[in-house]
Request: fold
Amino acid sequence: MKRISREQARVYTFDRSLPPKLRVVPGEKFIVETEDASSGYLRKEGQSPLNRPFIDETWPPSANPVAGPIYIEGVRKGDMLGIKIDDILVAEDQSFTFSARRGPIHDSYKWSQAAEPWTRILQHEPGPSGTMRDGRIRFNQKISWPITPFIGTIAIAPEREVITSIFGQGIGGGNIDCRDIRPGNTFFVNCQNDGGLLFVGDVHASQGDTEFSGVAAETRAEVTLAVEVIPGKKIPYPRIETPTSLIALYNSRPLEHAVSKAFFILMEWLVEEYGMSQRDAYLQMSINPGVRVHVYQMIPDMPLLYTTGVEFPKECL
Reply:
């Protein structure tokens, strides 16, 4: 199976001028070995994340590395890609998170301990299968939870501008930290260049709603993907299909605008592709208990838009 090695997965921009790291045909499975969001810099308990040459001394910031571009043969500008997440196997040893005077906490006196620069190492424990596919994350001696990995940054190269992998977001995907981009689901996005030019990285071993502190369980991983191509199909914004539901995504600020736009995009999806009447689609947004709002990424005081999604159950199509 073709793969991009971890040593090659250190790209920090979504740039269409970069030579492809991999070429695949539609439907072909391939592997991407991803580096963690600190480019491997934060590996020790208590390490300060403030003295970070990977962020502070470079431009674009050498954080949030991705692998790519990945060229999909036969893809043309304007085609839609369906990126199937087949498997995510996180690092066998650890992930990390950190606190610092950033995000919503700033230099709060009341929360001074939480604001102190500190790296927490999260140990990974294999599950009954002997692998991390059913493993657990050890937060401390008393607390652990299941590993629930997903791809935090997935994007296609934009048509014109070059944007950083840490701050880039929009119709081409980006650093959206959506925890439904996980094994078994398919992420759909329109291409802006021939070949698609796909970038993948920033795997999280787990994350709560909103990623409020700005850092999840950041980890190295091995990701297995396959890409299908839907020629000429246009969608207004990236979307996700799970085995049981449809999820319309949107990025914006303020939060209520992002949620409202995701609702309207979902309604258009139901009307245009499933023949639902406008009235039925609209009414179900309020009364169908399977309609759920997700706030995947909402980090105050960071230059990132909020990532939201609205989910609709397939059993009601």
The chain has a mean pLDDT of 94.
